[in-house]
Write a structure and sequence with these properties.
By secondary structure, the protein is of the alpha/beta class. The protein is about 50% helix and about 10% strand. Bound molecules: NADP nicotinamide-adenine-dinucleotide phosphate (NAP).
């Protein structure tokens, strides 16, 4: 197939590498000419440029820009699409993206490949990024069946594990397991950083080991990504944060009142509950 990819970064570039190795012809579009050159050199696209015109021949187009760039990208892209072209995106929040694109292009399926690394940009693109990882499709009752079937088939060919749900259910689920952890982890770092005694702070920094590394990892990532999660998934994230604050309050009460039975009970519950969230997908 002739497949267009707009936004040749970590996700767009990685998609290009895999789709080309599956025999598809990949037409890349990105913001910077240097990124387009690198994408072709690295084998992430057959051709790439800053122009949208070459996408006129694409049968499927993946929008892989940052969430904040989807609206301006759409304005540039739509005049160049073939009438029966299928559009999809990879944004990590779905309801606002579907609201934006669906009224303007009916042959559109929202998608979210849940894979990534701490890096960004075309140089971070790697083969097999999506293999064994979830790929969520979020069609609505208006989404044409053939478009859903084709994107499902392409995502499956990447070795991903496919899930289909509503955009709203997707956004609530990722608020719990992706967006809330970023805010909790960021708050953890900020709280530690707030230690008023510099000697204690530097001792804590020297002693920090694997536990702190695990719990602070997502809070120490790219601030732009965290900001976009908060902006685009505001309502679901706030709901999750309220629930988290409630749980903290209960734990704090137990500790304040030396109610060790209550504290133990809660920690036993979390020990039993965790495996269901972190089990191997395959
Ligand atoms: P990224 O590495 O920063 O790549 C995005 C690329 O888009 C940039 O390299 C940039 O290329 C290009 N771009 C920016 N504005 C553009 C525009 N107006 N027109 C054309 N190209 C433009 O980001 P990413 O991590 O791949 O994320 C891309 C999308 O994937 C986001 O919607 C995100 O929500 C989603 N996602 C990310 C992850 C993750 O873990 N990172 C996981 C799943 C889904 P230039 O170099 O040309 O400026």
């Amino acid at each position: 197939m002739r497949i267009g990819i707009v936004g040749l970064g970590l996700i767009g570039g990685s998609l290009g590498l895999d789709l080309r190795s599956l025999g598809h012809y990949v037409i890349g579009v990105s913001q910077r000419a240097s990124t387009c050159e690198t994408a072709v050199d690295r084998g992430a696209a057959d051709v790439a440029s800053c122009e949208f015109t070459p996408l006129e021949t694409a049968e499927v187009i993946f929008i892989c820009t940052p969430l904040s760039q989807i609206a301006p990208t759409l304005d540039q892209l739509l005049p160049h699409l073939a009438p029966n072209a299928i559009l999809t995106d990879v944004g990590s929040v779905k309801a606002p993206v579907i609201e934006l694109i669906q009224p303007r292009w009916a042959n559109f399926v929202g998608g979210h490949p849940m894979a990534g690394t701490a890096e960004s940009g075309i140089n971070a693109a790697i083969p097999h990024l999506f293999q064994h990882n979830p790929y969520v499709l979020t069609p609505t009752p208006q989404t044409p069946e053939p478009a859903i079937a084709l994107i499902h088939q392409l995502a499956t060919s990447l070795g991903a594990k496919l899930y289909t749900t509503s955009p709203e259910a997707h956004d609530r689920a990722v608020a719990w397991i992706s967006h809330l952890p970023v805010m909790v982890s960021a708050s953890l770092i900020l709280a530690c950083q707030g230690e008023p005694d510099p000697a204690i702070l530097s001792l804590a920094q020297a002693l920090a080991s694997s536990g702190f590394r695990d719990t602070s990892r997502v809070g120490g990532g790219n601030p732009e990504l965290g900001l976009l999660m908060a902006q685009f998934n505001q309502a679901a994230l706030l709901e999750a944060l309220q629930a988290y604050r409630h749980q903290l309050d209960i734990l704090m009460d137990g500790i304040k009142q030396s109610d060790w039975q209550e504290v133990h009970q809660r920690l036993s519950t979390t020990q039993q509950a965790r495996p269901a969230f972190v089990k191997e997908p395959w």
